[in-house]
Write a structure and sequence with these properties.
The complex is a heterodimer of chains A (134) and B (138). Chain A is an alpha/beta fold and 134 residues long. Helices cover 49% and strands 13% of the residues of chain A. A four-stranded parallel β-sheet of chain A has the order 2-1-3-4, with helices on both faces. In chain B, helix 1 crosses helix 6. Classes of the chains: A alpha/beta (134), B alpha/beta (138). Chains A and B meet through helix 1, helix 2 and helix 5 of A and helix 1, helix 2 and helix 4 of B.
Chain lengths: 134, 138
């Protein structure tokens, strides 16, 4: 019998220094707020700053990493310090697929830039559905 | 790090779960963009988690201020994990305790109180930044 997946972990790169990090952060927060019973998150630096409980995150929950740039901090940190993610998303790839220009603002995203967060949130939500549906 | 510094690295909490993480981030942006542009810089905290060489160099070569959003103190600990002692460490909730008329709300986007609180905190940190940028006591 397959184990029932109750919640999906979402790990955002949260990168403070790049617009892609802001998009990742806002999109992940949106999904977490809209799917509170199905999603859970962890602050990425807790893989280092936390203890065993935090490092067990990816073994407790099937995990989606969402990165804002090609350095893929969320994916690499999760793989190295916690466990293999079920899915790894990259903001620039998602935006390119949808023909959306990457935002340039670190904060106070302009209205046209907010479309980017919506598209990324929808991709995350789709990935959540795929995992929950097995 | 020793000697005269020009840049000051401010590293906020990376959290997306609590309002004080957002306050930490907004305070950093206020310092970078309004209060001390050209002096205050930041980097992505997760880059330290993956031991990115450029990020590690940045915190090794310059004085670092960490602003954490919760007692787990990820920003401070991530810097310390690189063998670097932050010059100053702050908890964002301390900014609220000093200005209780500004109770913040919001995580993805701060409300008006949150933005005001972050701006005030950045103004109050300016003196510390100036001291550190001038090569003052760390």
């Amino acid at each position: 019998m397959a184990l029932e997946v109750l919640k999906v972990g979402v790990v955002s790169c949260s990168g403070e220094a790049i617009p892609g990090g802001t998009v990742s952060r806002i999109a992940c927060r949106k999904v977490l707020d809209e799917r509170p019973g199905e999603t859970v998150t962890i602050c990425l630096p807790l893989f280092i700053a936390g203890g065993k409980e935090e490092r067990d995150f990816a073994s407790k929950y099937p995990t989606i990493t969402v990165d804002g740039c090609e350095k893929r901090c969320a994916q690499r940190s999760t793989e190295t310090l916690s466990g293999k993610p079920s899915k790894s998303l990259l903001v620039p790839e998602i935006l390119k697929t949808h023909g959306i220009d990457p935002p340039t603002s670190l904060r106070n995203l302009r209205p046209e830039e907010k479309a980017a967060t919506q598209v990324v949130a929808e991709e995350i939500a789709r990935a959540v559905d795929e995992i929950l549906e097995g | 790090m020793s000697g005269k510094a020009n840049k000051v690295v401010v590293l906020p909490c990376s959290g997306i779960g609590k309002v004080y993480g957002a306050i930490a981030r907004e305070t950093t942006y206020e310092l970078m963009e309004r209060v001390r542009p050209g002096v205050v810089v930041t980097t992505c905290l997760p880059l330290l988690v993956i031991e990115d060489p450029d990020a590690k160099q940045l915190v090794t070569d310059n004085p670092v201020i960490t602003i954490d959003g919760c007692p787990k103190s990820c920003a401070q600990k991530s810097v310390e994990a690189q063998g670097v002692k932050p010059a100053r460490t702050y908890q964002a909730i301390g900014f609220y305790k000093a200005h209780k008329e500004l109770k913040p709300a919001g995580i993805a986007e701060l409300d008006e109180n949150g933005r005001k609180l972050a701006a005030l905190a950045a103004d109050e940190l300016a003196q510390v930044v100036d001291q550190l940028a001038g090569g003052g006591q760390e």
